[in-house]
Amino acid sequence: MTTSAAQPSSATATGEGGERYFEDFAVGQRFTSATREVTQRDPEAFTEISGDAHPLHTDPSYAATTRFARPVLQGPFGIAVVAGLFHDLAVVDSTVIAMLDTHWRYLQPIHVGDTLHFEMTITRCRRSSSGDRGVVNRHVALIDQHGQRVQEGTTAVLVQARETRDPSEDPVGCAFGTAAWGEALARRLEADREFGSATASWDGTFGLRCGEDEVHLRVYRGRVLEATRRAPLGATFTVEADELTWTELLTGPRNDFTHRAMRGQFRTRGSGYDYLRFTKALTVLVDNARSLATEETR
Amino acid sequence: MIHAQYSEIDGASAYVEQAGAGTPVLCLHTAGQSGVQWRHVIRELAELGYRAVVPDLPGHGRSEPAPSGPVRDLSVYADWCRSLIGALDLQRPYVVGCSIGGKIALDLAARAGSALSGVVAMAADAHNGNVSLRGLERELEDAAAPSRTDRTYYGTLASVGRSVPARQAELIATMHRREDPAVSTSDLIGWGSHDLRAALPAIACPAHLVVGEDDPWLDSEAVRWAAAQIPGACCTVLEGIGHYPMEELDGFAHVLHGWLAELGESVPREAVRP
């Protein structure tokens, strides 16, 4: 990756493949890479570079005695493939500042002969306090020729902004789980009769957690009194999921919260009883969060 | 013309609807629901030349509760179905069921397969689906089960497949809200605890397992696995369909008719013609 100052704005196409600044990324955007075939040269080169010469990667007769039956590429080879395919997309060639982190899971082995590509979803855009750059978090699934996910995870990148702005001026509709998002959501819930009716007999605080961000909404008899990072007594219950799940729920084609909850994509902490009492209220809340996200994307 | 009757089955009055004359097809409903789920299919099956038989299981719909209270063991329902088959003198019937009905069909196939023409088990695997037995036991106390009707309503909406128009999904969910929580929770305990895995290889009648790809209650791989354990069985994954194929698929009876024809032996000849 290269480090460079911002380029003239003629390089800021927003279509796929165009050079992008921080402002050109939006939560819910998807990128699909080109494909890359894994050849015999790959394990040889990767063994040489990494020094990981375990016979599982290099010796077919040894690999035949393992659960994999044949040699397997080193796990981090998959991450390297993602970096290469992302470079080929040429979306941040002159605007990228640094890669910040990678959280990764190895799901299936990669073998010579596989053809890989990735599907990337933008899950968070957060301008830094300096205002001239921002963190773009991405969920990446590395997929083989059978459509099977072989590796997946998240990786954040720091990207140059086109304009220097105070981060508080940025839209909050897709900053799921932050206090600012919670406040915008609370204003909508206050105005939503259905939410008021569904929570009219409730007194407590519920938490919404997206990745590392959590916000508490204090409710009394159907009114949302406050949205805050942490209520003094904590949350009665908290609903949590990773950034990708919230992104798909709130920017996807429909409100499928219950389906995702039944599939185990959301977890709860605290009082399960109060969580169940919120069955309808949470569906209404998700409707509101979806319009908040959509209206700001427009 | 649908013929309705009350019959004494295993010590309680059972409500059964029948239509048509021909090869009998016993149609079993899902947990907590009733034969009303088959209200369109029953007519269409009759038109296709079958004798469609649609009971309300004990404690459901218009049938009286089982004498010993809500049923927590699906083999009790399977035994009840055998009594019903005998009482109505159904000769070598097909059995088609959905959810607990699908699992009851598999149980019948495992224990009385030689007396059946075949089974179509929809939305059922041979193990425990995606339920928490501990949570269900807790649910039996009404005080521990808040938002019960909301959960049935939204849970049903979430279990209907993506291809189903919104109004139809809404109708299905609204009708499913008519349930007795004690009965449907017990049904689900039966669904989650009835392990048929070891019985599958001995199934002695043709079997077809069907699962909707949008069904959040089931892992389609578990259904494929179950089908692979049954000699000669096949498995169909329905695109855009959820947990209730007979309510979600337009013209379901014709689809079922195709499946029954593949199962073989005694499909109405008239109707088999292309």
UniProtKB/TrEMBL annotation, chain A:
The lineage of its organism: Bacteria, Bacillati, Actinomycetota, Actinomycetes, Actinomycetes incertae sedis. Residues 28-130 form the MaoC-like domain. Residues 34-58 are annotated as: Disordered. This is Acyl dehydratase. It holds the Pfam family MaoC_dehydratas. Belongs to the enoyl-CoA hydratase/isomerase family. It comes from the Bacteria.
From TrEMBL, chain B:
InterPro entries: AB_hydrolase_1 (IPR000073), AB_hydrolase_fold (IPR029058), AB_hydrolase_sf (IPR050266). GO terms for cellular component: membrane. It comes from the Bacteria. Residues 25-253 form the AB hydrolase-1 domain. Keywords: Hydrolase. One of its GO terms (molecular function) is hydrolase activity. Gene3D superfamilies: alpha/beta hydrolase. This is Pimeloyl-ACP methyl ester carboxylesterase.
